[in-house]
Records
---
Amino acid sequence: MASTSPLPSVAYLGPRSSYSHQAALECFDPAKYTFEPRAAIADVFTAVQAGAVAYGVVPFENSTNGNVVFTLDLFCDRTRSFRDTFVCGETYLDVHHCLLSSAASLSSVARIYSHPQAFGQCENWLSANARGVERIDVSSTSKAAQIVAGDAGAAAIASRVAADVHGLRVLAGNIEDSADNTTRFFVLVAQPALRAPVSKGHGETDKTLLSFTVDHEIPGALCDSLKVFKDFGLNLTSIASRPSRLLPWNYVFFVEFVGHSDAQHVQAALDELKKYCLNLRILGSYRDEQRRRGQGYRDSERRVAGNGKAS
Amino acid sequence: MASTSPLPSVAYLGPRSSYSHQAALECFDPAKYTFEPRAAIADVFTAVQAGAVAYGVVPFENSTNGNVVFTLDLFCDRTRSFRDTFVCGETYLDVHHCLLSSAASLSSVARIYSHPQAFGQCENWLSANARGVERIDVSSTSKAAQIVAGDAGAAAIASRVAADVHGLRVLAGNIEDSADNTTRFFVLVAQPALRAPVSKGHGETDKTLLSFTVDHEIPGALCDSLKVFKDFGLNLTSIASRPSRLLPWNYVFFVEFVGHSDAQHVQAALDELKKYCLNLRILGSYRDEQRRRGQGYRDSERRVAGNGKAS
């Protein structure tokens, strides 16, 4: 590890006080890890791949606004830069957006800064309360808060934590369209051997993320691929696609299902799957934290590596 | 129609000189239609639904950067605002991005403005030639060109047409990552009866776009749905998904396949499909322009409605 700290480090999509930072703090015990912001999701992948950090935390999907395409594109790994980077954990963070400003009221606000995803998640509130106010996209909600700290005619959509960090007023709280606005983050690691071992007898479930392409000249190739999961009793939890960029209108598919890649029936399914798809890659197996959410996991031991074990 | 012009009008995602404007000019004869820019994709849908224009032109998908999620979200129609708005045509536009500036060389450029999709499509060139230069997201490439026209320290990623309109230098041409960088646009119409009739005996093919949800409590429901297309011999040409926003991690799926919704075998397939999916909606059938691209369609008669007929 290149870090000079005696503690292993965790890279996250920064800046400080970002939702990724909060997700990293959910997963790793601050007494045992140091945390390093990175300016872009690609920089987190690069730090993990190079061994400059022990883990990385990146956003993957939001319950209101869908997949984070930048993360999907990095998993596509079209330049083969991240061949040793795998997913070893996931975490879910409830996202509550606020309108922050140094102005005393919304009537003084002429511009709103935020990340495009955050604008997308607050569309209803903005349509009702800020119609005609200019919107300016910036790279993160925390960056937006930083910008408006010096601009009394502007507001930011960001977290309550960002208001504290940048000394801003909360003009409106919980302005997200859906009360169930949750972002899912992945924990990245560079060594597949570090992936969590198969949980046995704990009543817990694992999930596995795959990427693959299909021969688009063969009609029904995607259907044949998905049918394998059904035939082997593997329930799909997520499906997404991105352009392969090798051929126009040719796609990389991402499929997540319940099961660990080490389990015998999963390995049998993957062997079958290889008959129907190309470039199959196992991106990682990890504990299903979504099912645990109703079980008070926040109070349980820190996950992924907080107790010094891989699971 | 609310338009005061004697000619029927076509709304497109503006401003003038945008790629949507170029796509609209590809589809409709300027001698027979007037063209109206709209500030947002939602505004194009609204104009079509309200009958304020005869047609709308919106971007749907880019071959390098994937689906335009704003358009998908409007097709989801979660607020039931666009129940009479359908797709009646498609067109493909080759997209060549340029770096435009009033500066004489790249070395004077401290900021680059563009749409997030355009940044995504020029990632390789930017990494090699403009590392460390600040990137500022704006709502369109043409807006970016407009902004930098008055800022000698800035550049825009936009079209060559935008350079002419705003009097900018082309510092670098064709900077997109993929030589096959193509954007697909949909033509919207408010009356499903206006959709193109089934082509018979012309050797042409039609495509149909559907949206549906599946009961996420039923394992394999998506697989069962996709299998129907295979069983009825309908080849899928596109699949996409967006969060339903009704329940977290519940999705609206978009499937496009070869065939017209009026054709007998397609209607049989749709009847079968209804057994496996919820909220099935036919978003339109239209002539497959992708297959026609190699056949010199640019020189052929204007499509969709340019010759006064629906096809």
Note: Chain B touches chain A through 40 residues (CB under 8 Å).
---
Amino acid sequence: LDQQLLAQTQTRLDNKTKPLGSLGRLEEFACRLVAITGQEQPDLSRKAIFTFAADHGVTEEGVSLYPREVTAQMVFNFLRGGAGVNVLARHAGAEVRVVDVGVDHDFENCPGLVHRKVARGTRNFCTGPAMTTDETAAALLVGIDLAAQCKAEGIGLVGTGEMGIGNTTPSSAIIAAIGGFEVAQVTHRGTGIADQALANKIKVIERGLALHRPDPAKPLEVLAAVGGLEIAAIAGLVLGCAAERIPVIVDGFISTAGALIASELHPQVRDYLFAAHQSVEVGHRFMLERTGLRPILDLDLRLGEGTGAALAMPLIEAGARILAEMATFEQAGVTGH
Amino acid sequence: LDQQLLAQTQTRLDNKTKPLGSLGRLEEFACRLVAITGQEQPDLSRKAIFTFAADHGVTEEGVSLYPREVTAQMVFNFLRGGAGVNVLARHAGAEVRVVDVGVDHDFENCPGLVHRKVARGTRNFCTGPAMTTDETAAALLVGIDLAAQCKAEGIGLVGTGEMGIGNTTPSSAIIAAIGGFEVAQVTHRGTGIADQALANKIKVIERGLALHRPDPAKPLEVLAAVGGLEIAAIAGLVLGCAAERIPVIVDGFISTAGALIASELHPQVRDYLFAAHQSVEVGHRFMLERTGLRPILDLDLRLGEGTGAALAMPLIEAGARILAEMATFEQAGVTGH
């Protein structure tokens, strides 16, 4: 990011009628928004949250509380506007774009669905790589394409989100592989599995990593071996938005797995990211530490879909509004110091 | 609060299309809103933030970075809509009501100002009590009256706020007196004073407390001895809103001093309160611990005015919207577990 733009924006904020720095992180948001977009007054009036849906072969191993069909069922729920992300995106004034990047279901006559299916889910990473190199690249490209489309449409703020029964499993596998952590350290209950199922989930991830031994320095190798199509699409969206200078709010655990892949590939993308919240999933903080992102909210969320991104959007926007609308000491006739 | 209503609301949430409990604190907000208001679907469409302004005699002791005139200057800034709280309240869809409860300035022809001046500021608590018993009661009544007016107008969510040069000093004095803390433990930089001024501020509070020795078990005695008119009005607003079953978002350090007085008088008011955020002021966490409130946001804020309350409002509302708008497993045809 342009250090001069950051400093100039801080000076503008310092002239506003408030003690220096007293709006805390809102000031950070304002400065970063200006530096990311290159706009003196970032226009965040159009906002979109991308909810990428995909299935996971590893659900064969009994890693989730819910059956695999729920992924497709939830896609219909998103399209009807009844899911958590729909409610919270409406509240934030953002649009939800539901992308089928890999659901094991044929969606026909689904108005509103973005059809970008790469495969009908990943393969079980306990028996082979989750994705081929081509599938991985194709899913990344879905995200990159959608970012370019956002730029063309004038969308000023993007949120990530996902739906995929079983997808905390590849997310834990990714942070374990990249960060070199014990699987048990970064693996948690997902939708709410009990102790025995958690122990099984940890063993499943250990088996997958032992089978593939992906090189931690090669994030795309990790992604293909144990990742997911929606995770790849999120990584692509993050890379694409950074390239297009669009700020991105990264949702929770699974979204941050995607952002982690992107930031391992290109560390500079971190400058374009905002971490929506601290998830209940224990592996999340290891991802946040590695990407250097400080979460905005801590509300004990663990739903995903983009719900945390939707909740954080108004806070990022608040930074832009402070910059645009607050009076200076001079304008207000207030004695500075 | 009605435990049955809390439990019934949790059951409604448990039928929504999400893993149990996965919306974390939003679920807590939803349950509490129903129990506070007694409404199955709380109506938060009308929201108001009260910014109580007052001056402080203790500013004679050089406790603040800004001169006393700034209190009145900021009142004009609020009325013109240029202050931080105006910007953030507009963003949250809330109205700002600016109340002169004790500013050392004659406000004439000030459209929009709520004229409820009790005195032209407090007295210097180093030389005598900050307020008389009558002044304390009058300022409390201002808040109680305004809560009753909110009820009459159908305001569904109230936020507290304040402006008063020097008012972190009485706030630190209050938590030191009530909690039995060392003054140095709960006193911080306010608008941004340097080390020497902070050392002086601590000594000033120590002198005031040594002079009055208020009984920690008598919150109104503490309030009169070392408090402030805006702090008393906030205590009254909190008491009044609880009595009227209106949920209240308590802003930062100074607002929480008011809420602390109210909750020491009537511990049940805590059930009606939401703590907007964790302030940078070090004494704030002691207040939050004592009132048992868990802050919603942690954004390094230390501006006051009601800015934190404005930022937290959409999050409280999000709880209500989840309850109203999310589809159930049955409605969405999603397989539960």
Note: Chain A touches chain B through 59 residues (CB under 8 Å).
